[in-house]
Amino acid sequence: IVAALATAVLIALTIGIAASSYFAASASREARAAKESLSEADLQRKNAEGVNKFFTEEVFGLADPNNYEHTGIKLMDALDVAAGKIERKFPDNPELRIALYERIGAIYAKTDQQERAIVPLEKAVKLWTQIAGENDPRTLRCRSKLGGALTGAHR
Q1: Per-residue pLDDT reduced to its tens digit, 113-153
Q2: pLDDT tens-digit profile of 66-124?
Q3: Nearest CA to 124 among 99, 88, 91?
Q4: pTM above the 0.70 mark?
Q5: Which residues, 6 or more positions from 143, have their beta carbon under 8 angstroms from its beta carbon?
Q6: Three-class SS string for 41-109?
Q7: Which residues contact 99 (CB under 8 A, 6 or more apart)?
Q8: Which site from 18, 46, 62, 98 is most exposed, i.e. has the minimal number of CB atoms within 10 Å?
C-alpha cells in the first residue's frame, strides 16, 4: 500500500510539474507577443506623429509667408518641394520615409497626377523590399499602388 501511495504521489507531482511548465511557457510566449505588439504600436504612433509634423511643417508650412517666400504656392508644388526633403530629414528612419512616400504617392494618384505618383511609390517599394522582403504583404500592397500609378500614366 505504501509503495502504491508513493507511486501515486510521484505521478501526481510529475503531472503537476509538467502542467506548471506548460503554463509558464505559454505565459512567457504571451508576454513576449504583448511586448512586440506594444513596440509595434509605439512605432506606428511615432510614424503617425512624424507624418503629421512633416506635412504641417514641410508642405503646408511652405505657404506661410512668415517662414518662406513661397506665398501662393500650389499644393502639388509644395508636395514636390517637400518630397525632395524626405531623405535628408529622415536618413535613419526608413519606416517614416516609407509612410511619407506612400502618402505623397497616394495624394498624387488621387488627384490624377499619376506620373508624379510613380517616383515616391517606387521609393516606397524599394524601402519595403529592403526592410521586409519581396513577398511581405506591405511590399506587395505598395507594389500594387505603384502598378496603379503606372497604369494610370499609361506606362
Answers
A1: 999 999 999 999 999 999 999 999 999 999 999 999 999 98
A2: 766 666 778 888 889 899 999 999 999 999 999 999 999 999 999 999 999 999 999 99
A3: 99
A4: yes
A5: 125
A6: HHHHHHHHHHHHHHHHHHHHHHHCCCCCCCCCCCHHHHHHHHHCCHHHHCCCCHHHHHHHHHHHHHHHH
A7: 47, 48, 50, 51
A8: 18
